[in-house]
Design goal:
heterodimer, A: alpha/beta, Rossmann fold, six-stranded mixed beta sheet, globular, B: mainly alpha, ATP hydrolysis activity (chain A)
Chain lengths: 263, 287
């Protein structure tokens, strides 16, 4: 168990009556770089929110570092989707990064140590030279790096990113994945992505999520499957690797495995 | 204008008005910047109109039942805080349609106020000064009350600025970091409500939204960080208040309305000048 960072066991989740995730069993190993892929509405973001403890599963258990997610939030860095905040909000890059340490003091301004940590985090993402520029005047890629710095400033052991490259060009996308590779030496990384092509090239594992979920090692996928995968034919890899992304309807009909924890 | 400066030296009521303007400006700049940055003007509007209920009830108790200490300003403060707590509860639960509930608070507060005011003898002057403000009638008791409200607002803002910033910008991150988003959200709404009360003293509750947002909106056109916007907005608000009083004094125009016209004019000028600046200097802002 020491080697498992995120553990989903028989997890189901429903918004009101609508079940989004069904019988999820997932073990994400330490120091892996996991690409979470699957169709829109398949439950990728829900999976992330369950991992963060922002949502509670209706059945089954989620554990992060062998504990309830909300007890280990201090070990998790989270980079939200780019649309989750107002880009016109009057803050500088440094302000944004400091917010990652807003829980470290009860009142008053950020302490010296917070500022040092924030500058270090900005240096790690190569943004120190823009620390006083306002958010509104940063490019999409710079904004994304500021948000990564914000997640890094609390010294996480697990970094979760929700569509970090949704709003940037290919060049910047490449830079962000380079950065993630670098960070991956020290921490486990989970990246939600709509771009199978890119994420397969960078990740060590793929978590295919569509109501159900399964994890495959990228190096176990054969060349032929990969190229078919890149063409957009998800079913090839899913049949071969038991990664049943395509066939949500039959999966949803299976009985629940986990015990009910809500309702 | 010259008459104003002449009288300012000799007449205490004018000096009180200027001090009142200064006190209102402090809260206006600090809290107004948050209101504009959070796009929460409608919330402030609902609280502002709810204040009439408190003012009316207090005035009724004072006049009809001889409860002297129950001043309209005290009534306004109580009503505003209650409105803020209701808004906080509603927005936190997320079950009701927020705009519907805000509109209800807005209308019910006004309705209660109008009923009380009508039941109070000599209501017409009262009603007019609540609706449109009467800064020239401000007394020392009002100024003391305003100073207390100011102190509360500024001290809490200094203590929790960082928290208010993160819950306004990224509430989900704040929640994730274990910050009590709901508690700080409620506190911020209470500060907004206290500021609304302060500003009603200057411009009345109909125009309070304008004074709360116009200096901050003008400042945010130029400031790129919130605390800088707060400093600029405070200065602008004081400038608008003083020049509004000065301009209206000679020709006996309503002071509150003149303040708002100055503020509105400056805001439009700021937008226009920024637009012209961009048009004629097609320099990329980023470099």
């Amino acid at each position: 168990m020491d080697n498992v960072v995120i553990q989903f066991r028989d997890v189901c989740f429903a918004y009101d009556q609508q079940e989004v995730l069904h019988n999820i069993d997932l073990s994400i190993p330490n120091k892996s770089l996991v690409g979470v892929v699957g169709p829109n509405g398949g439950g990728k973001t829900t999976l992330v929110k369950l991992t963060l403890g922002l949502l509670k599963p209706s059945r089954g258990t989620v554990k992060v570092f062998d504990e309830a997610p909300e007890r280990r939030r201090h070990s998790i860095g989270y980079v939200p989707q780019h649309l989750s905040f107002d880009p016109e909000f009057p803050v500088s890059a440094l302000d944004v990064v400091l917010m990652g340490r807003a829980d470290r003091h009860w009142f008053g301004p950020y302490r010296r140590r917070d500022r040092i940590k924030a500058v270090e985090a900005l240096e790690r993402v190569n943004l120190a030279h823009l620390s006083h520029r306002s958010l509104a005047h940063l490019s999409g890629g710079e904004r994304q790096r500021a948000l990564i710095a914000q997640a890094l400033v609390s010294d996480p052991e697990l970094l979760i990113l929700d569509e970090p490259t949704a709003n940037v060009d290919t060049n910047v996308e490449h830079q962000i994945y380079e950065l993630l590779h670098e960070l991956n030496k020290q921490m486990t990384i989970v990246v939600v992505s709509h771009n199978l092509n890119v994420v397969t090239r960078h990740a060590s594992h793929l978590a295919c999520v569509n109501r159900s979920a399964s994890l495959v090692r990228v190096d176990e996928i054969t060349e032929g499957q990969l190229s078919a995968f890149h063409r957009g034919d998800m079913t090839v890899i899913q049949h071969a690797q038991d990664c049943h992304v395509h066939d949500a309807s039959s999966v949803m009909c299976e009985p629940h495995h986990g015990k009910e924890t809500r309702l | 204008m010259s008459l104003f400066w002449e009288h300012l030296v000799n007449h205490t009521f004018l000096q009180y008005a200027i001090v009142g303007g200064l006190l209102a400006s402090l809260a206006c700049g600090v809290v107004g910047s948050f209101v504009v940055a959070r796009r929460a003007t409608y919330v402030a509007g609902a609280i502002a109109h709810c204040v009439l209920g408190g003012m009316g009830a207090a005035r009724y108790l004072q006049r009809v039942h001889d409860i002297e200490w129950m001043t309209p300003l005290l009534g306004a403060t109580v009503a505003a805080v209650i409105a803020a707590l209701i808004v906080a509860a509603v927005t936190a639960s997320g079950r009701q349609r927020e705009d519907t509930v805000l509109s209800a608070i807005w209308a019910i507060g006004m309705a209660v106020g109008i009923s009380f005011i009508t039941a109070t003898p000599g209501y017409y002057e009262d009603l007019m000064s609540y609706l449109f403000g009467n800064i020239l009638m401000i007394g020392t008791a009002d100024l003391q009350h305003m100073a207390v409200l100011d102190a509360v607002i500024v001290i809490l803002m200094l203590l929790f600025y960082d928290k208010f910033l993160v819950i306004s910008f990224q509430p989900e991150l704040a929640k994730l970091r274990g910050i009590r988003v709901r508690a700080y959200h409620t506190l911020l709404l209470v500060l907004i409500s206290l500021t609304v009360v302060l500003l009603t003293q200057v411009v009345g509750l109909v125009m309070v939204i304008a004074l709360l947002t116009l200096p901050a909106a003008t400042a945010l056109h130029f400031a790129q960080r919130l605390w800088i916007a707060m400093l600029i907005a405070t200065s602008l608000c004081f400038l608008f208040t003083v020049s509004g009083i000065a301009l209206s004094y000679g020709p006996e125009l309503p002071a509150g309305a003149t303040v708002i016209q100055v503020a509105g004019g400056t805001y439009l000028l700021a937008i226009a000048s920024k637009w012209l600046w961009k048009k004629f200097n097609k320099i990329d802002q980023r470099h």
